[in-house]
Amino acid sequence: MAWLRGLYNWTLEKAAHPHAVWWLAFFSFIESSFFPIPPHPLLGLMCLAEPKKAIRFAAICTLASVAGGLLGYGIGYFLYEAVGAWVIGLLGLTESFPVAACYIREQGAMAVFFAAGTPVPFKLMTITAGFIEMNLATFTLAALAGRSLIFMVVGILFQIFGAPIKAIIDKYLGLLTTLFVVLVVGGFVLFTQLASSDEDTGEAHICDTATNVRGS
After folding, report:
1. Fewer CB in 10 Å around end: N or C, the chain?
2. What is the largest CA-CA distance in the chain?
3. Phi/psi at 35 (nearest 5 deg)?
């Protein structure tokens, strides 16, 4: 896991950078539309370094992430064939995209909120929301609510329990990263299960086997 330790150290350097706030905003922005690395570690380290600014950092992370989500929405709305499909392919979610599109058409704001506030790949949801032409105001409010939840919780936890959390990260970095990956995959699976639970009749939900991203 040498590369992971290198990435972790690189993140630490950005947390101590004179323009760390801008780095935080930048990573939060691009992660919501195409970048694979989440901004949580950087947010946590910055909150640990300056606990009194934790809420400010979390707010910056939230707003930048929602702005990045709007970029993802724009990619799905205007540039899916040229850019969006390529991004989804890089994420390894090409086969999941029609299923996600089907569920988001049915769940609307709740699907976006769930993705924004859990380990479900948020970039998949932002691009999908734009692709299916979800109401922009509804998308923005749902994304803002979900992102506020997940980032503010991180900020508060690090402000209160900063030192113990840093010690855990230093000791169990590899394990925690693996756990995060598992949560991302599991979160998407959970999303599809919850989305279909209300209409569970003992048969597979129509979205479970969706293959047409354009809808019926």
Report:
1. C
2. 57
3. -80, 135
- Judge whether 116 and 145 are in contact, CB under 8 Å: yes
Whole-model pTM over 0.90: no
CA–CA separation, 145 and 66 (whole Å)? 10
Residues in the chain: 216
How far, CA to CA in Å, does 209 sit from each of 79, 107, 161, 204? 25, 17, 44, 8
Q: How far apart are CA 66 and CA 165, in angstroms?
A: 26
Find all residues with CB under 8 Å of 64, minimum gap 6, and list them. Answer: 24, 25, 26, 28, 29
pLDDT digits (tens, 9 = 90+) for 155-197: 777 777 766 766 666 666 555 555 655 555 555 555 555 555 5
Q: Cα Rg for the chain, rounded, in angstroms?
A: 18
Distance of alpha carbon 81 from alpha carbon 77, whole angstroms? 10
- Each residue's pLDDT tens digit, 192-205: 555 555 455 455 55
- Contacting residues for 131 by C-beta, under 8 A, at least 6 apart: 76, 77, 80, 84, 101, 213
HSE on the CB side for 92, CA within 13 Å? Answer: 5
Tokens 């947390």 -> residue:
15
- Quote the CA–CA distance of 150 and 106 in Å, as a whole number: 24
Distances (CA, A) of 45 to 107, 148, 196: 35, 18, 38
Separation of alpha carbons 69 and 91, rounded Å? 16
- The pLDDT of residue 200 is 52
